[in-house]
Amino acid sequence: MIDDLPAGLRARHLADEDHLRVLAVLDTWWGGLKGEAGATERALLLPRLYFQHFTTTSFLVERGSGEVAAFLVGFLSQTEPETAYVHFVGVDPALHGQGVGSALYRAFFALARSHWRRYVHCITSPENTASRAFHTRLGFTASAVKPDYDGPGLDRVAFTIDLSAEPVAIP
Ligand SMILES: CC(C)(COP(=O)(O)OP(=O)(O)OC[C@H]1O[C@@H](n2cnc3c(N)ncnc32)[C@H](O)[C@@H]1OP(=O)(O)O)[C@@H](O)C(=O)NCCC(=O)NCCS
Questions:
Q1: pLDDT tens per residue across span 16-53
Q2: Does ligand 1 have an atom closer than 6 angstroms to the CB of 98?
Q3: Which has the least CB within 10 A, 11, 12, 29, 70?
Q4: What positions does the domain N-acetyltransferase occupy (predicted)?
Q5: Domains, in order of start, for the chain
Q6: Rounded distance between C-alpha atoms, residue 148 and residue 152, angstroms
């Protein structure tokens, strides 16, 4: 499914039974970003519905032991026929910098293209400097910080990439 992952990792589509396993890694993987409020925010971003109704456009990466190594939750926009959206992505910190995140995005871009989606959007918190650097490196264009974008006090940076612009600079 994703053939350019580091050795020992394999990918499949997300499934209902992955829900609690993914929730369990969020705080560690995000390094406790934004404390208690951040933990609540993250958990609320991944209700079970994503593991039921968005599985075919989302990926889970596991080690041979079955341990969760990375995930990407995405979907095709129902409103904008040219758009796909990455909702949430995470990689085990022990695997950072080995191309797992970019492999997940490449797979999602291929899937988006196969459904004739030209644009991929996603957002991140302004405080998440790693995410901002990663998305910029992948070729996304970042907006200015959008105050209260996701609700009072929930500022966001929005990212867009145009998949029709060749070549897409993905490491
Ligand atoms: C952001 C994240 C997904 C990146 O995953 P990753 O597997 O480490 O990324 P990759 O190894 O594929 O890196 C791809 C490129 O982005 C760059 N990059 C990744 N993390 C970076 C960081 N923290 N700072 C600067 N550049 C970074 C890499 O250097 C690489 O570029 P290069 O080829 O020029 O070296 C990962 O750090 C993560 O899970 N963070 C915690 C969760 C999170 O913030 N998710 C995103 C918001 S929802």
A1: 999 999 999 999 999 998 899 989 989 999 999 999 99
A2: yes
A3: 12
A4: 9-166
A5: 9-117 (3.40.630.30)
A6: 5
